[in-house]
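RECORD CONTENTS
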Amino acid sequence: MPFVFLAAATIPILTTFGIVATLLSDAWRFFAVVPLSEVFSTNLAPLRAEPSFGILPLINGTVLTSLIAMLVAIPVGLGTALYLSEFTSARVRKIIKPIIEVIAGVPTIVYGYFAYSFVTPLLIKLLPGLGAKNVLSPGLVMGVMIIPIVASLSEDAMNAVPGYLSEGAYALGSTRFEVAGKVVMPAAMSGIIASFVLGISRAVGETMIVSIASGSSKRFSFDITQSMQTMTGYIVEFTSGDAASGTTGYYSLYAVGLLLFIFTLVLNMASQAIKRRFRFRVG
């Protein structure tokens, strides 16, 4: 059995190495043809007679949608976790938490059409200058989708805080709000930050919502009311048959995929560093 368990543990490691090797080998073919000065530019027109492959518009669209999503998910998710952990009974928690987690099981393509057909028309009534395809609508819907991740993981981290810390604070005359904000949250900070990072990674890698509701405009802009394209949206567009196999545009897919991988790796490394720092403080 130890060999069976070792083989099971080895499979994800080998898979990761295989993914990295594939991304590096095919992305290298792209970077061997396209100079870095062009890659890190704002001019993205891969289907023109003289194509250009500036990825800054894709990074800009990805960052903007992810920021909007986290501006929704972090406060709502953290508030939900605090309520479930500190301000409600166990009976109510058993009812509310599964309902919240059901949101995480909704297919993302459903969220995409919900953002495009319901949220966007609603926002247009409030913001007349909002485009039919924009960054704001998918960002808000992505935030709703990520709320269960932040809420569930944060609540688990808060419940893992030793009970004697809260009991000692109550014995000293602290209110429930003071115990939640000054005792439970600092002690659970490593788990809370992990939920934030996981939520950001989920937002960066989201595909269908931004592909449907954000559009495919390759402009470099900070106007969230207009259409932009994210890195995942670019991959979806080109894998639909716009780029012939073996062309520079085809290999650009792997370059964008490698960039997404690096984003996620950096987020995970930052998460581990922050978690170690907060654990040291609590200890």
Observations:
- Residues 248-282 form the longest helix (35 residues).
- The chain has a mean pLDDT of 85.
- The beta strands are 44-45, 52-53.
